[in-house]
Automatic annotation (TrEMBL):
It is a multi-pass membrane protein. Coiled coil: none annotated. It is found in: Cell membrane. This is MATE family efflux transporter. The chain crosses the membrane at residues 20-38, 58-86, 98-120, 140-165, 172-195, 201-220, 241-265, 285-304, 316-341, 361-381, 388-414, 426-443. Keywords: Cell membrane, Membrane, Transmembrane, Transmembrane helix, Transport. Its main location: membrane. InterPro entries: MATE_fam, MdtK-like, Membrane_Transporter-Flippase. The keyword Lipoprotein does not apply.
Length: 455
């Protein structure tokens, strides 16, 4: 058992669910903020020093970045569920075997994505209605990001393994360091090096590589439980199949959502550079607001995975109920924040003289802020089902989300005002819950009956 004492692992099968969830969630939230900070810093520096066109070019790639990094994040998070379950069951040799198989799969997907997306770069951008003026910048930026996907996959996988064992703080520290390096490199490449948007992309890839390297070194030094032996790497098609049965649906769920945002971005691009810049700024800000929801989702997946592996169904139910209350409380704060302060928050990206860009961002928030409780609940129920080992229904929620978002865009794009396009997000968030909530209560209905009998 000595290997279990090394590092900063947390057994989430004992203790107060609220305290455990908050203790785990806060570092994950901060880590997500710093991970978002890569693209946000690129957008801020590009907008302030290169102008509105550069902001429109880099900022509008957010949906594509979400598509690519979301796939890798979902894939590795799905793999980590089995790691968390076997850690909770204290089957450490089996846990290490799944870690090794995850390494194979993560590397393979990263290489395939680099090749495929690199070849499809221009066709994808054409489908998104980019103008000839902006196309060269967007093409250059995304080409560099695609080339660095191996380091993105490495960080996501290593951080997911640490979180599966209950350590959410270490990945945060490494992200803080790499985020600071990203900003420093942005300034060096753009302001002093005279580079354009390519400088932002190089800074992002280098910083992500540093965070991956730090994660790896830390695991080698502090986590003997994750030290893999030769026998752990014995390839097993069955084990890879189990990992893919969780990883692929989670990756698809992120990608399906991203496809919807790409469709919306394509509709916004038709309105011109000011709308692209305003919508991009609003999207970056909202992503930061939503990182709390993402953090709750990642936390509940680990919490549920460990307790389900330990056979503690009552604790699963308690954790979900407590998290729902905390999400609703935060949603009230987030709604007030964006309603009253979105105008001032947008000034991070553009000067006060860019009034049309600011007005676009404010209009977006006024159209969507009321739906934040639904957005938060998506992460709760989707990740809970994934933590229990159900992958299909969470993916189905993504299909509902995509259908609603695409449907609104098709109805209003080019036929109505920009405000109509903004409504695609609330429609998507509400629709995503249609399969998730009923299925969660269906799955846990027997558990509730058992608890009533005991009471």
């Amino acid at each position: 058992m000595s290997e279990v004492k090394a590092g900063k692992m947390h057994d989430m099968t004992v203790g107060s669910p609220v305290k455990l969830i908050l203790h785990f969630m806060v570092p994950v939230f901060l880590g997500n903020v710093f991970q978002q900070f890569y693209n946000v810093a690129d957008s801020i520096i590009a907008g302030q020093f290169l102008g509105v066109r550069a902001l429109a070019a880099i900022g509008s790639t957010g949906s594509l970045m979400f598509f690519v990094t979301g796939w890798l994040n979902g894939l590795t998070s799905g793999f980590a569920i089995l790691v968390a379950q076997w850690f909770g069951a204290k089957e450490y040799e089996r846990m290490r075997h799944y870690v090794a198989m995850s390494v194979y799969l993560s590397l393979g997907f990263a290489v395939l994505m680099t090749i495929g997306l690199g070849l499809a770069n221009v066709p994808i951008l054409r489908l998104m209605n980019y103008s000839d003026e902006i196309m060269p910048d967007v093409k250059a930026y995304m080409g560099i990001i695609y080339a660095g996907l191996v380091v993105t996959a490495a960080y996501n996988a290593l951080a997911a393994f640490l979180r599966a064992l209950g350590d959410s703080k270490s990945p945060l520290y490494f992200l803080i360091i790499s985020a600071a390096i990203n900003v420093a490199l942005d300034i060096a490449f753009i302001i002093y090096g005279g580079m354009g948007v390519e400088g932002c992309a190089y800074a992002t890839v280098i910083a992500q590589g540093i965070s991956a390297a730090l994660c790896f070194i830390y695991i080698v030094k502090k986590y003997p439980i994750l030290h893999l032996k030769k026998e752990n790497f014995a390839f097993s098609m069955e084990s890879c199949g189990r990992l893919l049965s969780l990883g692929i649906p989670m990756a698809l769920q992120f990608s399906i959502t991203a496809i919807g945002t790409i469709i919306v971005q394509g509709a916004v691009n038709v309105y011109g550079e000011n709308y692209m810049a305003g919508f991009s700024a609003a999207g970056k800000l909202q992503n930061i607001v939503a990182t709390v929801y993402v953090a709750f989702g990642a936390t509940i997946a680990t919490y549920v995975g460990q307790n389900w592996g330990a056979g503690k169904k009552e604790r699963v139910l308690m954790g979900v109920n407590c998290t729902q209350i905390m999400i609703l409380i935060y949603s009230v704060f987030a709604m007030a924040l964006v309603f009253f302060f979105s105008k001032y928050m947008t000034l991070l990206f553009v000067s006060a003289s860019e009034t049309e860009v600011i007005d676009v961002a404010v209009l977006y928030f006024r159209m969507v802020f009321w739906c934040y409780p639904f957005l938060g609940s998506i992460f709760l129920y989707r990740n809970t089902l994934q933590g229990l080992g159900y992958g299909l229904v969470p993916m189905l929620g993504g299909v509902f989300e995509l259908t609603a978002r695409a449907g609104i865009v098709l109805m209003v794009a080019g036929k109505a005002s920009f405000a109509g396009v903004c409504l695609s997000d609330p429609a998507a968030w509400i629709s995503a819950l249609i399969p998730l909530v009923p299925y969660y209560f269906y799955v846990t209905r027997k558990w509730r009956k058992e608890l009533k009998k005991k009471a």
